[in-house]
C-alpha cells in the first residue's frame, strides 16, 4: 500500500505487478479496493500492472466532499490525476457497478487517457437509481439533519472509514454539517438524473462517443440487469458483451441482490476473458 496526495486528498493505493501495460480496477459501491486484490493478482500474472485505489470517502483514503461535480466525476478526476502521477497513462480502466460507472465516465471525460474498458455489473433502471440514491446519499442527509457530523461518524460506512484511517474522524467533525448536507443533496440530484438514461451516469450520446474497445460482462440482479448491459453494448461503438459468465436468469426472476460468492467464483473466468480481450486488442 502507498499514499499519494491527489487534489488535496490523501489517496490509498496499491500497484499489483511489476511490469507491463497499466490497468486500473475499481470495486462497486464505496467499498475498499481490497475486495479486488486477488482478482488483480490473477490479471497481473498475465503481464500487467494493476492499479487499485480507495476512492475518497472509501476505505483508507481521506474523506472529502467536493460539491463542484457529481461524486463519480470527482472520483474520475482523482483517478486520472493518480494515474498521471504514476506515469500510468494511457491505461485500461475497469470496474464493477460503481466502478464500472467510474470507468465509463473516465472514458467520456478523459478519452485520450484510456486504452480500453473492462466492465462488469453495469447499473441501470429506475429501481437501481431509487435504491442507490438513498443508499449513497439519502441516508446520510437524514443522519446529518438529525444528529450532525457526530451521527455521520457513527454511521456504519463512515465509522469504517475512521477505523481504516483514524484521521478521518477529525476531518468529518470539522466538516460544516450544512455544507455536507448541501453536497450530499447535490450528488443525489445528479444521481437521480440517471433514471431516464440507458445506464446510470451516461447518456446515449456519451456512450456513442466512447472509442475505446470495451469488454462488458452482464449482471443478473435487479440493480445490474442483463438488459442494461445489452443497452450499453449496443451504444458503445466497439463493445464485446458476455452474458454467460454468471447464471442467466429470466427478466422476471432477477436476483434481488448480487450474489457475491457467485461473482467471486467467476473471477478466474473473468480474468481469462479480460486478458484475452486485451491481447486481441494489442494491449500487451
Report on this model:
The structure is a single chain. An eight-stranded mixed β-sheet has the order 1-2-4-3-5-6-7-8, sandwiched between helices. It starts with a strand and ends with a helix. The protein has helices at residues 37-44, 71-85, 98-109, 126-154, 156-164, 167-173, 177-192, 204-208, 226-235, 260-280, and strands at 2-6, 9-16, 22-26, 49-53, 91-96, 114-120, 214-217, 239-242. With 284 residues, it is of the alpha/beta class. The chain has two domains: 2-124 and 199-280, Alpha/Beta hydrolase fold, catalytic domain (Rossmann fold); 129-190, no CATH class.
Mind sketching the topology for me?
Elements: E1 2-6, E2 9-16, E3 22-26, H1 37-44, E4 49-53, H2 71-85, E5 91-96, H3 98-109, E6 114-120, H4 126-154, H5 156-164, H6 167-173, H7 177-192, H8 204-208, E7 214-217, H9 226-235, E8 239-242, H10 260-280
Parallel strand pairs: 3-4, 3-5, 5-6, 6-7, 7-8
Antiparallel strand pairs: 1-2, 2-4
Helix pairs in contact: 1-10, 2-3, 4-7
